[in-house]
Amino acid sequence: xxxxxxxxxxxxxxxxxxxxxxxxxxxxxxxxxxxxxxxxxxxxxxxxxxxxxxxxxxxxxxxxxxxxxxxxxxxxxxxxxxxxxxxxxxxxxxxxxxxxxxxxxxxxxxxxxxxxxxxxxxxxxxxxxxxxxxxxxxxxxxxxxxxxxxxxxxxxxxxxxxxxxxxxxxxxxxxxxxxxxxxxxxxxxxxxxxxxxxxxxxxxxxxxxxxxxxxxxxxxxxxxxxxxxxxxxxxxxxxxxxxxxxxxxxxxxxxxxxxxx
Length: 261
Prior knowledge:
mainly alpha; two-stranded antiparallel ribbon; 8 helices; disordered N terminus
């Protein structure tokens, strides 16, 4: 597809789309190795928790731009806003009532709040759902929406299972109550909700947002973001002695490398 300059109202493979995509992801990639090192050695000061929230926003903005590059004409941004809105509503209900995730509460570590939910959380959902969907599209030769959505749901839920221990027991971004649950204090309802919610949202992207003809632009970007998350949290789980999520991260990474090699 030829590159061309366009108005700010419509991202394309030209400079506007590339700036919107690579600026936030470039910030994330730059901070990424330093973040791993600081967390592995316990050198990140407690007052720097907001950096995690800022990086979640960067990932979400980058993945929103990637959706717009591939869906075009405002449809990608509309999908990203829909994911963020659905995520905020689900989280607001969840943190207020304990349904459907289980009872939990956020700390102030992620920074700015949007009602009862840290503002970074909807961006995290955009990043997670879009990365899982884009990775599923790479893994599957078929374009059946139900199968792509199911694989995306598995990937997103697996990612959540890998990061929960670090987010809750190391960084203290949120706390589950009661904490005496089988999976490091996390209730099974959380993972069931993640699977259902991310599957539905991924199905929405597959049905409404994918290009009708041709290949995805920058098609490996979502898988790269997904793999970077698994590597970071996998290493942190190893360092903290959380064996099950570390093994899960290793298993997911092995499967992805084998399938995408």
